[in-house]
């Protein structure tokens, strides 16, 4: 787990968009999924986190499973 967190920290430090990009919450009404987009210039990241123990349906039109 520690190595996974270290990789995520390295990824964040290597991406200006993840640090400084505009922040937009996506689908705030979903009870178990927290999703957001960070964008800076041409670089864009969409982060989708599932806080339940089960697969969740999320996305535009609720079509993507996470």
Tell me about this structure:
The protein contains 2 helices and 5 strands. The strands form 2 sheets. It has a 3-stranded antiparallel β-sheet with strand order 1-2-3. The protein has a two-stranded antiparallel ribbon with strand order 4-5. 3% of the residues are buried. The mean pLDDT is 88. It has 66 residues and is α+β, with helices and mostly antiparallel strands.
Task: Please tag this protein with its features.
about 70 residues; single chain; two-stranded antiparallel sheet; alpha+beta
Q: Could you tell me the strand content as a percent range?
A: 35-45%
Helix content: 25-40%
Unreliable spans: none
Characterize the main sheet. 3 strands, antiparallel
Please tally the helical runs, counting DSSP H or I stretches of 4 or more residues: 2
Number of DSSP-assigned strands: 5
Shape: flat
Q: What does the radius of gyration come to?
A: 13 Å
- Structural class by secondary-structure content: alpha+beta
- Looking at how many chains there are and whether they match, the oligomeric state comes to single chain
Mean pLDDT level: 88
Sequence of secondary-structure elements: HHEEEEE
Spatial strand order of the main sheet: 1-2-3
Give the CA-CA distance, first to last residue: 20 Å
């Amino acid at each position: 787990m520690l190595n996974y967190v270290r990789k995520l920290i390295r990824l964040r430090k290597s991406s200006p968009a993840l640090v400084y990009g505009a922040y937009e919450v996506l689908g705030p009404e979903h009870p178990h999924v927290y999703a957001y987009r960070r964008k800076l210039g041409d670089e864009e990241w969409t982060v989708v986190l599932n806080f339940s123990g089960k697969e969740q349906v999320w996305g535009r039109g609720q079509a993507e499973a996470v």
